Every structure is written in structure tokens, then in C-alpha cells.
């Protein structure tokens, strides 16, 4: 199989970074194609832990080309800090990183807008990461106030930034942003961004053409999804979603590579479920079970440090997103987190308005009303972080994995029992 996609099938934070890092060995190129610095990908390598938000997780492998493609929204300050941080720790970041000239740029006003417009008419906040992601994508679709990476290398870019800053001022002043806010200071912003643009210049190119050439010459591409498919702007739990297509749907548009060139899709799930931010979460355990999972799994946001909401595995949701993302097989992550529990539950259906269904509702208000139907399985109460072969797992852990594969409808191909590369079982 040449080209592979790694997609989160839940609400993000499925430990995709580890899987991408593992699979990178068999690929030539790793591509981020949506999202931005709202993502937090953790890679543990050589005993060191790295947190990435914009740079593809392939950066740790020599000879792998990393691409931040057109569908990503780039905060240049965050990106440069990430590059500096990696270099300081001895990781090469040079010609092995490319940034699309078509990617959209996050500007200071986007962060202000995110703060102001995070509220939802239903009263429950979306609970965004406040990184300006939604406002930047909104400007991309709106076009007139959008700024792309390539704009900084064309004559007249300062005038354009100044004009956009002025129209943002007119929009944001009535919403309470002071006219002299640093987030609207065109002169200061131009100075700051001129510096970023110069530093990023060596990385910027036409990644669409590069990837199309790579497809033609048979190079092996790995597409690294950010967030999870339930946060997909079109197919997720709208409006409690992110602003990009975080299911497999995002790849063709976000990278410029037609879907027919994606040969294998690996769906990544946790052995349980988590969610950060607002929105319904049918299997949530807002009790001692949830607390236990949060403690053992260190379930705190990589980007915002918010405690993640925790609950049992939701097979109704995962089956839906596995189909949606064209998933061939699944990787089950963080199985070790469940080790101490006497009983483990899987949600296999929902009760909705008195009827049982295995369909994932298409409206958030109906999703709020579902009652999960749980199946109970015995736990294994034995530490498994040192296990390296499926046959060496406790029988109840194997039964749990078999059942997950059945209810999701896809074979389990990889099992993770700890953060390190070595703590992985290939089924
Ligand atoms: P935004 O992407 O910052 O606009 O946030 C929208 C929703 O997506 C919020 O509920 C966030 O908590 C969630 N979200 C965004 N990025 C991630 C991620 O990488 N992991 C988990 N949740 C995320």
C-alpha cells in the first residue's frame, strides 16, 4: 500500500501522533492537510516527549519530507516557535519541511474574534481552543478579508494587511474590541509579520504541485489527520465541531490530492472516549469512572490543558465515523488505561425517543436526547504496558479488543499499551 491516511474516529486526541510516527517508517512524505495550532500531537521518541501542533509528526525521521498543505491554517508565530523548539533539541528542520503558499494565515484579530464569537445561540459555548481557527477559516470562505501565506511574498502585501485591519476594526469595535487594541494595529502587525515571512520564506512553496508530482512518481504519502471525525465541520456534531473537515473527507481538498490516491485508511480510536469543549457526549461518565480514566490516561488538553471529559467507548459513533472516513482497519490506543477496572462498558446502540437505533443522529439536539445502551465486559486488572504480543494480553483484554473490532465493523490492526514507540502490538 503506497499512500495511507491516519484519521481520528472520535472527538480528537486519539494519540494519532504516535501512530503517524510509527507508520512514517514506510512512507516518504507526511502531510498535514487541515486544522492548525488547535491540534496537539504528542510523539515520544528516544525517551523524549515532543508536542507538535503544526509540524507533521514525521519530522523525527530522517529522509521524510513533511508538508503543511493548503488546508491548514498557519499561525506563523506558533510555527516558528515550534521550529526553534525542535532545532534546540537536535531535530533537523530545514528542507525537510514545506509550507503551502495557499495555506491561510492566522492574524491577531482572529484570536480576538474567537474569544468574542465562541458563544452559541443554545447557550452552551462551543469551547474552542481560542487559537483563532474558526475565524481564520471563516475569512477563507468569505475571501475578502483572507490572507494566505503566499500573499507575503507579493508586492503590496502591507497595504492589503492595513486594509483588512481597517475593515476588521469596523467589524470588531461594536463588539467591544478597542480601536487601539494591539490586535488591530496594522503597522505593528506588518512589522511582526514581515519578520515571520522572511524566516518562513525557505519553507514556502507550491505543495499541491509537489504532492501531485509525488503521486506520479510513486512516492509513498502519509496523510496525518488532526482532531477527530466527530469534530468534522460537515459530518460531525455541529455546531460543536472544529472548522475543517477532520474526517477523511478533508484530504483531497486540504492537500490537493484526489481521493483515489488514498490507498489505505487507518482509523484511530481510544479504548474509551474523550471530548474537550462543549457539545453532547452520550457515553460521558461524569463520575468516579470518568475521573479514574482522566487520571490514568492523563486526559488533559495538550494545547489548552483543559481536563478532558471522559466516558466509555461509543461504538455507534465510531462505526459511523469509520464508514465516513473509508476506514480499512483500526488502531486501538491507550488500552492500558482501562487495566484497573473490574468492568468495562461499550455503547452498542442508542435509545432515542423510546426507540432503539444504531444510527448516529444528524442533529445535535437529537444527540443530546439519546440514552446509551451499554454492553458490559469483564476487565482484566493486570498491568499490560509491557505486553508486546496479542497472545500475551490477558484473555479479557483480547475479548474486549475482539468486541471493539466487531462493533466498529473494522479489524483491529494496532494496539497501543503506552506512549512509547515500543509499547505497540501489531495484531
Ligand atoms: P477550535 O478548533 O479551536 O475552533 O475548537 C472547536 C472544538 O474542537 C472545541 O470543542 C475544541 O475543544 C475542539 N478541538 C479542536 N482541536 C482539538 C484537538 O486537537 N483535540 C480535541 N479537541 C479539539
Characteristic terms for this protein:
alpha/beta, 10-stranded mixed sheet, 4-stranded mixed sheet, binds inosinic acid
Describe the protein.
With 427 residues, this protein is of the alpha/beta class. It is 30% helix and 21% strand. It has a 10-stranded mixed sheet with strand order 9-7-5-2-10-1-11-15-19-20, with helices on both faces. The protein has helices spanning 16-23, 76-88, 108-117, 133-142, 157-172, 186-200, 207-216, 250-255, 288-297, 315-324, 364-369, 395-408; strands spanning 4-8, 29-32, 41-45, 48-52, 65-68, 73-74, 97-100, 104-105, 204-205, 221-228, 264-270, 273-275, 309-311, 313-314, 329-333, 343-352, 355-357, 371-378, 412-416, 424-426. The chain is globular, with a radius of gyration of 22 Å. The chain is built from 12 helices and 20 strands. The model has no long low-confidence stretch (mean pLDDT 95). Helix 3 (108-117) crosses helix 4 and helix 5 packs across helix 6 (186-200). The longest helix has 16 residues, at 157-172. Inosinic acid binds at residues 11-13, 38-40, 126-129, 131, 133-134, 226-227, 231, 240, 242-243, 276-277.
Amino acid at each position: 500500500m503506497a499512500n495511507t491516511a491516519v484519521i481520528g474516529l472520535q472527538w480528537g486526541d486519539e494519540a494519532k501522533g504516535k501512530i503517524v510516527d510509527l507508520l512514517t517508517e514506510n512512507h516518504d512524505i507526511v502531510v498535514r492537510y487541515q486544522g492548525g495550532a488547535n491540534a496537539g500531537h504528542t510523539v515520544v521518541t528516544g525517551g523524549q516527549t515532543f508536542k507538535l501542533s503544526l509540524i507533521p509528526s514525521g519530522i523525527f525521521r530522517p529522509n521524510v519530507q513533511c508538508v503543511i498543505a493548503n488546508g491548514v491554517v498557519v499561525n506563523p508565530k506558533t510555527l516558528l516557535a515550534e521550529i526553534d523548539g525542535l532545532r534546540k533539541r537536535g531535530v533537523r528542520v530545514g528542507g525537510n519541511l514545506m509550507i503551502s503558499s495557499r495555506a491561510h494565515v492566522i492574524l491577531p484579530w482572529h484570536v480576538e474574534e474567537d474569544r468574542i464569537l465562541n458563544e452559541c445561540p443554545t447557550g452552551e459555548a462551543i469551547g474552542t481552543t481560542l487559537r483563532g481557527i474558526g475565524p481564520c477559516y471563516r475569512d477563507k470562505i468569505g475571501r475578502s478579508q483572507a490572507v494566505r501565506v503566499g500573499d507575503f511574498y507579493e508586492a503590496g502585501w502591507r497595504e492589503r494587511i492595513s486594509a483588512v485591519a481597517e475593515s476588521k476594526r469596523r467589524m470588531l469595535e461594536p463588539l467591544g474590541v478597542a480601536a487601539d487594541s494591539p490586535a488591530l494595529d496594522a503597522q505593528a502587525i506588518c512589522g511582526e509579520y514581515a519578520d515571520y515571512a522572511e524566516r518562513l520564506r525557505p519553507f514556502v512553496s507550491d505543495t499541491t504541485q509537489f504532492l501531485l508530482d509525488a503521486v506520479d512518481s510513486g512516492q509513498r504519502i502519509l496523510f496525518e489527520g488532526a482532531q477527530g471525525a466527530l469534530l468534522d465541520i460537515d459530518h460531525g456534531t455541529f455546531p460543536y465541531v472544529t472548522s475543517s473537515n477532520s474526517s477523511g473527507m478533508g484530504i483531497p481538498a486540504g492537500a490537493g490530492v484526489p481521493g483515489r490516491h488514498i490507498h489505505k485508511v487507518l482509523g484511530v480510536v481510544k479504548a474509551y472516549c474523550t471530548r474537550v469543549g462543549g457539545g453532547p457526549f452520550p457515553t460521558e461518565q461524569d463520575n468516579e469512572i470518568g475521573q479514574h480514566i482522566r487520571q490514568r490516561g492523563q486526559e488533559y488538553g495538550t494545547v489548552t490543558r483543559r481536563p478532558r471529559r471522559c466516558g466509555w467507548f461509543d461504538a455507534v459513533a465510531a462505526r459511523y465515523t469509520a464508514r465516513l472516513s473509508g476506514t480499512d482497519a483500526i488502531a486501538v490506543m491507550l488500552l492500558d488505561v482501562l487495566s484497573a477496572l473490574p468492568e468495562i462498558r461499550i455503547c452498542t446502540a442508542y435509545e432515542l425517543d423510546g426507540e432503539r437505533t444504531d444510527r448516529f443522529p444528524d442533529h445535535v439536539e437529537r444527540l443530546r436526547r439519546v440514552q446509551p445502551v451499554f454492553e458490559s465486559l469483564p476487565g482484566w486488572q493486570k498491568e499490560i504496558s509491557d505486553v508486546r504480543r496479542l497472545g500475551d494480553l490477558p484473555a479479557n483484554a483480547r475479548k474486549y479488543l475482539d468486541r471493539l473490532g466487531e462493533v466498529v465493523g473494522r479489524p483491529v490492526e494496532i494496539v497501543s499499551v503506552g506512549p512509547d514507540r515500543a509499547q505497540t502490538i501489531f495484531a
